[in-house]
User: Which sequence fits this backbone?
């Protein structure tokens, strides 16, 4: 009898769960309540508004007026985080078609304009 007990109890458990479920279909008319949820629009960061090629042109323009550019300066210029700014400047420096190179100013990594 003990080995059949789970099979005997299963229909009872299913019926008890069904009794507690809310009914989905009502046969009598009722009022519909509409809830409007207003969510604020996601703020578009500066990095989403400015394309990478435009940021590259901003970096080249900055370097044409200044001897060097730090990651912090590029981050402030573009609105990117420092980590993203450094990664993007490193990508610019590794591309041979972009006239930006990495230079060391003491222990600090800076970016300079190359004459290629």
Assistant:
């Amino acid at each position: 009898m003990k080995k059949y007990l789970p099979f005997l109890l299963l229909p009872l458990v299913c019926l008890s769960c069904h009794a507690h479920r809310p009914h989905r279909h009502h046969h009598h008319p009722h009022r519909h309540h509409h809830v409007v949820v207003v969510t604020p629009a996601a703020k578009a960061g500066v990095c989403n508004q400015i394309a990478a090629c435009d940021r590259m042109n901003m970096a080249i323009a900055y370097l044409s007026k200044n001897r060097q550019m730090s990651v912090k300066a590029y981050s402030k210029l573009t609105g990117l985080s420092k980590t993203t700014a450094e990664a993007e400047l490193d990508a610019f420096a590794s591309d041979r078609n972009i006239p930006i190179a990495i230079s060391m100013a003491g222990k600090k990594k800076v970016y300079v304009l190359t004459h290629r």
